[in-house]
Amino acid sequence: MMEKLQKIFADRAALIDYVRALSPELADAPVSQTVGGRQAGAARLAQLDAQSYGSSRNYLDGAVSYLSPYIRHGIVTLNETRNLAIQQGAPKQVEKFVQELAWRDFWQRIYHQSPAKIWRDIEPYKTGYSADHYATELPEDIRQARTPSAAMNFFIKQLIDTGYLHNHARMYLAAYIVHWRHIAWQAGAQFFLTHLLDGDPASNNLSFQWVASTFSNKPYFFNLENLQKFAGSVAPCAAHDNVDFDDSYDALAARLFPHSEALNG
Amino acid sequence: MADLIWLHEDMLRATHPVFAHASDDATAIFIWDDAYFDVAGYSLKRRVFLYETICQLPVDIYRGDMMALLGQLAEAAAAQKIYTGTSPNPALQKIMQELSATHELTQIDDEPFVTLDGPADLKRFFRYWNQARKTAFDVDGAN
Ligand SMILES: Cc1cc2nc3c(=O)[nH]c(=O)nc-3n(C[C@H](O)[C@H](O)[C@H](O)COP(=O)(O)OP(=O)(O)OC[C@H]3O[C@@H](n4cnc5c(N)ncnc54)[C@H](O)[C@@H]3O)c2cc1C
């Protein structure tokens, strides 16, 4: 007998209980407030502000769209999102937003072209370290949001509880994992894919490779000043809670990449 | 004989072009494959998001191994043709490949974002963007 599953539920709580029962080994894990389905995706689309996006998108409280889980699973298309964005302003005014949609299209094309490559380093690291320097397991303090950095712990908790992180928070956390903690990008990427509702092997792994420098010309890293500027209104960014980042870019480069001449010029 | 539409996790929309390609009386299904989600490492919240999405679609949800159930469901519906959406995911591609050996399987692309006038240059994003921008600001990515 083929097992046909239930589709109609009294409310969201009943649906969640049903999925918990389908996955008993995960039953005590958190569920996001973000609601699935076309209706919820369309409601997000209706709130799009492609013009404000351009100037505020790098701030954690900026006018980003929160469309990613819907786009990831084809619930909302890049095409319809762009069609709406270009109604909201001239190409110059909505360029940044349309360009971010193109990032997804770009990563998907690479994935389509070489699906098997998605877990491999596309190029060598440009950090002064070779790939075998990086640990392959994600440490427990990262999994449990107990790192020495309050901001990183805040991002990890948010990732686990909501299944979403702002792009800049993803960059910070990925850079922390790879460059401060010397963990291979693959271990960080799998952790993200487990929790992000928009988790996508192409966007996620290739962005991780961009941060790591295996798909870019240099590693991405940040300092406290940058963290405070873009994340300060949302995350705990006080210097005494985030000492690892409290330095100039030159000093951090010397500390993080001591063997790289290019980064310590 | 009705067609079978197989929706997978990359195409969870009732307006996906696959529906226009299959016959009007086609049966549409989604297969809830616990092992597939386990391999991908999906947390409970990802599974809830997907389940909630699928419940709103005109599909029947069956639980089990994707490959095995697709064969059984095609047989049960006496379906000559199976339609699905293209996917870059190697796990889904493998199933599509195996299915094509025994069934007439058609993979339908989702609507495009841009139209390129040559092969995509994927070495770095900005090379690609220089090609894509020519239609990225046009309705339906076509001028
Ligand atoms: C380490 C790291 C991991 C990431 N993992 C994923 C992932 O698993 N899935 C995912 O969809 N995105 C991923 N991104 C890209 C980006 O962070 C998210 O798409 C974005 O933050 C989602 O929020 P939003 O919908 O509010 O985005 P907005 O800024 O409002 O952008 C609109 C849409 O454009 C697309 N988009 C925007 N920026 C990017 C980008 N840089 N790359 C690819 N697509 C983009 C998304 O579909 C997004 O929904 C990752 C980025 C980094 C740095």
List keywords for this structure.
heterodimer, A: 265 residues, mainly alpha, Serine Threonine Protein Phosphatase 5, Tetratricopeptide repeat, DNA Cyclobutane Dipyrimidine Photolyase, subunit A, domain 3, globular, B: 143 residues, alpha/beta, Rossmann fold, 2 domains, 6 helices, 5 strands, 17% strand, binds flavin-adenine dinucleotide
Characterise this structure.
The complex is a heterodimer of chains A (265) and B (143). Chain A has 265 residues and is an all-alpha fold. Chain A folds into 2 domains: 12-113, Serine Threonine Protein Phosphatase 5, Tetratricopeptide repeat (Alpha Horseshoe), CATH 1.25.40.80; 131-264, DNA Cyclobutane Dipyrimidine Photolyase, subunit A, domain 3, CATH 1.10.579. Chain A is built from 13 helices and 1 strand, in the order E-H-H-H-H-H-H-H-H-H-H-H-H-H. Chain A has helices spanning 12-22, 38-46, 50-56, 68-72, 78-85, 91-113, 140-143, 150-162, 167-180, 185-195, 201-212, 224-231, 249-256, and one strand spanning 3-4. In chain A, helix 6 crosses helix 11 (201-212). Chain B has 2 domains: 4-111, HUPs (Rossmann fold); 114-143, no CATH class. Helices cover 41% and strands 17% of the residues of chain B. Chain B contains 6 helices and 5 strands. Chain B has helices at 18-21, 34-40, 44-55, 66-76, 90-102, 125-136, and strands at residues 4-7, 27-32, 60-63, 81-85, 104-108. Chain B is globular. Classes of the chains: A mainly alpha (265), B alpha/beta (143). Chains A and B meet through strand 1, helix 1, helix 5, helix 6 and helix 10 of A and helix 2, helix 3, strand 3, helix 4 and helix 6 of B. Strand 1 of chain A pairs antiparallel with strand 3 of chain B. The structure holds flavin-adenine dinucleotide (FAD). Flavin-adenine dinucleotide is lined by residues 57, 64-68, 71-72, 100-101, 103-104, 107, 166-167, 170-171, 174, 192, 196, 198-200, 203-204, 207-208, 211 of chain A.
